Amino acid sequence: MTDLFLLIMGVQGAGKGTQAGYLCDKYRLLHISTGDLFRAMANRTDPLALHVKSTINAGILVDDETTNAVLQDRLEQPDVQTHQGVLLDGYPRNEAQAQWLTGYLEGKGKSVDAVLVLELDLYTAFKRSFGRVTSPDGKRAFNIFSNRDGVQWDFEKSLDDKFPPRLVAAFKGSGEALKRRVDDADAFAVIGRIEKFLNETRPVLPYYEGLGILETVDADQPIETVREQLFSIIDERKK
After folding, report:
1. Residues 57 and 76 in one domain
2. Residue 135: which domain range?
3. pTM, whole model, 2 decimals?
4. Which one of 17, 82, 90, 209 is separated from 190 by 20 to 30 angstroms, measured CA to CA?
C-alpha cells in the first residue's frame, strides 16, 4: 500500500477537481474517482464488470458490496504502487462504506491519513456550477455570475417547452460557442447533485471527525489560497 491515503470531499463547485490536480502533482498521488471507475466498467468483460453493467442497465442502484469490490479492484492494480499515495474522490457514500474502507486499509497496515473537505455555502455552489462555461479547447474558464468579461449568454427555451431553459454562451465578437458540462445543463440537474451531496456525503463526515482525521478548508477563497492551505494540512499530516 502506498505512503499517503487521502479522501477529498465537497459539494459541486467547491473546486475538488482543480485542487485534486494540484495535490496529485505535488505529492505524486493517484487520483481515483469512483465515477470514473464505474464508467470504465463499460469496456471490461470480467465477472465484476458484467455484474456492474447488468445492475446499472436494470436501473438498480449499485449496492455497497459491489461498490467496495470495484474500489478494491482498482486499489490492487499494479500502477497504484508507482505513485506515492492515493487521492480518493467520490467515496465513501455512507458510513458502511467508510467502515469497510477502514477495515480494508487496516488489513494492509494502512489507514486514511486525512479527509479533506472543501466547504462552500450551497448558494455559491449553485452559482459556480450552473454559471460555468469553458472555451472549446477547455483552457479558459468563465462564469456568467462572476467572470463573464468577453462573454455573451442567454437562456434558450426548448421548442416544445418540455424541458427547462438551458444556458447558452459564446464569445462576444466571434460568436464562438462556449462549452458546458453535461451535468450543469440545467438548474434541476445542479440542484439534484447538491442534494446528493447533502444526502450521501455530508452524513459520512461525523464518522471521520470521530477518527480525528477530518480537515476542512473554506473553498470560498482564491484558488491559490485553498491550494496552499491544503498543502499545509498534508505537510503537517506527513510529519
Report:
1. yes
2. 124-188
3. 0.85
4. 209
